[in-house]
Amino acid sequence: MRITASTVSLTVEDIEASRDFFTEHFGYREQAAAEGFASLTRDDAAVDIVLLRRGTDVLPPDQRDKHAGGLILAFTVTGLEAEEKRLRSEGVDITMPLREEPWGERLFQVTDPNGVVVQLVEWITPDHA
């Protein structure tokens, strides 16, 4: 098997709100859309995002009423502090402030209008390494 692309599918209440959040603040663009569906992509290595409206009948019956919860959509980036400053200046609420873990992970989180947690991460060499 050879994986040629990766996509995460998120079931949300308001597709337009999540679509606008990811296109405005994270550089995604809509590549396809229909009633209850939007597909977002970028030109770099970022994962593609499919947004499905909660309750849509394209989902199996046991998945229709579930919501994208309990997951973190994490993007490894460069220039983490600049990204945090940019998002803050754009009015995005930083829901977990910038912090550094002892193992070398620097991160912060924002949350989209449907409750999808987006974490930006930058890896550094820890001081004790």
UniProtKB/TrEMBL annotation:
Q: Which domain of life is it from?
A: Bacteria
Q: Where is the VOC domain?
A: 4-123
Q: Which Gene3D superfamilies match?
A: 3.30.720.110, 3.30.720.120
Q: Which InterPro entries match?
A: Glyas_Bleomycin-R_OHBP_Dase, Glyas_Fos-R_dOase_dom, VOC_core
Q: What is this protein called?
A: Glyoxalase superfamily protein PhnB
Q: Which organism is it from?
A: Streptomyces collinus
